[in-house]
Structures are given as structure tokens and as C-alpha cells.
Automatic annotation (TrEMBL):
Source superkingdom: Bacteria
Keyword Transcription: yes
Protein name: DNA-binding transcriptional regulator, GntR family
UniProt keyword terms in alphabetical order: DNA-binding, Transcription, Transcription regulation
Keyword Transcription regulation: yes
GO molecular function: DNA binding; DNA-binding transcription factor activity
PANTHER family: TRANSCRIPTIONAL REGULATOR, GNTR FAMILY, UXU OPERON TRANSCRIPTIONAL REGULATOR
Coiled coil segments of this chain: none
Species per Swiss-Prot/TrEMBL record: Pelagibacterium luteolum
CDD domains assigned: WHTH_GntR (cd07377)
Length: 224
């Protein structure tokens, strides 16, 4: 596995100065530069990225928490396979957590929350082509609705899974048709919240997550 890592370093590493170490490693895992199943050794990684071993260990722990890396009891680290099963598992959890989160927002939503959600939604509508900008605005939209929820652990799980989905989206970008569907779902969510209809909002959020799952799986298959 060391040879795989060394070969990938020679062929694929490129300077990305505005990214932190964990982001660089996440980017390389999703792109396949750090292949699924490969062992991640701190010394090799420190040489690859030009840093000391302590930042590498910290990055590995962060990526383990996000689901990109598996840490074993003997402290070895391995790249997780980001396959269809993994994606389905993530979205199965998201379709449970997000309806739960939105129900509380329906009860607590203030006018300024909805005004901000509409403003972000209009920015999304004006966004053209840039996947990173789109993902950032999409997360901001949903964050408005979930940030004050009392269940910190539920929000943390959603955030960790969101990192995985956004990273995969950079490799398998959203299609124009999916963008249209996302925008419609967002307006429907705003309308349901404004109508104080928690059941409807939860249904739309679940539909929204399943739509994202289907689209991502389709894009992954198309890339095979």
C-alpha cells in the first residue's frame, strides 16, 4: 500500500494553498488520489503534504470523524471506500435526522429567519455553475433552519455527513435538472414553515434528501 501512496503522490499531488490539510486529504480521497483501502502512514503523509506528523495525526482524526478514514485499535488508518452502500447509509440517516430538525424550526422560526432563507435562496438562483459556491449557499440555507436546534449531537452528525456529500458533489457535480428540483424544494420548505405545517415541512425535507441521494448515486454510476 505504501507503493500506491508514493505513486499517487508523484502523479496527482498539486498545490492548493488555500486549503487546510484535512481539506487537502479529503479532496485527494474523493478524487481517488488516495485510493480506497490504502493505508495512510503519518510519515509518508507528512512528506507528501510537506508538514510535520502532528498536523497529519490531527487531520486523520478529523477525517475519521467525518467518515473518510477508518482508524483501527493499533492506530493504523485506512481510506474508507466511498461506494454506493456508504452513500445510502448516509442518506438513510439524513432522512431521519433532517425531518426531526425541521419540525422544531417550524415551531421556532422567526420572520428574520425566513427573510434570510429567502435571501440565500435568491443567491442560489443567481448562482451559475460554481459547485463550491452552490454547496456553500445550500448549506447556509439549511443551516438557518437547523442551527438553533437543541440536539447538538443530531446537528453534529448531519454536519459530518454533509462534509462527505459536499466532497462527493465536487467530484460528481450537480446537474442543471437537479438544481431546478433543489430550488423548488427550498421554496416549498419555506412555504411549509411559513404555514406552520410541521408535517408537510418534514415530508418535503425527506423528499429533498432522497432526491439528493438518487442524483448522487446516478452521477457515480455514470462516472464508472
Amino acid at each position: 500500500m505504501s507503493e500506491v501512496l508514493a505513486s499517487s503522490e508523484r502523479k496527482t499531488f498539486r498545490p492548493r494553498p488555500r486549503m487546510g490539510l484535512a481539506e487537502l486529504m479529503r479532496d485527494d480521497i474523493v478524487s481517488g488520489a488516495l485510493p480506497a483501502g490504502s493505508l495512510l502512514k503519518t510519515i509518508e503523509l507528512s512528506k507528501r503534504y510537506g508538514v510535520s506528523t502532528n498536523p497529519v495525526r490531527e487531520a486523520l482524526h478529523q477525517l475519521s470523524g467525518e467518515g473518510f478514514v477508518v482508524l483501527s485499535r493499533n492506530r493504523s488508518a485506512q481510506v474508507r471506500s466511498l461506494d454506493e452502500t456508504f452513500v445510502r447509509n448516509i442518506f438513510d440517516i439524513r432522512t431521519l435526522i433532517e425531518p426531526y430538525l425541521i419540525r422544531v424550526f417550524v415551531e421556532q422560526a422567526r420572520k428574520d429567519d425566513l427573510d434570510r432563507a429567502r435571501a440565500v435562496q435568491k443567491q442560489l438562483e443567481a448562482s451559475h455553475g460554481d459547485q463550491i459556491e452552490w454547496d456553500s449557499l445550500d448549506e447556509e440555507f439549511h443551516g438557518i433552519m437547523y442551527k438553533r436546534h437543541f440536539n447538538d449531537e443530531a446537528r453534529a452528525i448531519r454536519q459530518r455527513h454533509g462534509e462527505v456529500v459536499r466532497a462527493l458533489a465536487r467530484r460528481y457535480p450537480i446537474s442543471p435538472a437537479r438544481r431546478v428540483a433543489v430550488l423548488k424544494d427550498h421554496w416549498d420548505i419555506i412555504d411549509a414553515v411559513e404555514a406552520h405545517d410541521a408535517d408537510l415541512a418534514a415530508t418535503i425535507v425527506e423528499r429533498h434528501a432522497r432526491g439528493a441521494e438518487r442524483h448522487l448515486l446516478l452521477r457515480m454510476r455514470e462516472a464508472l
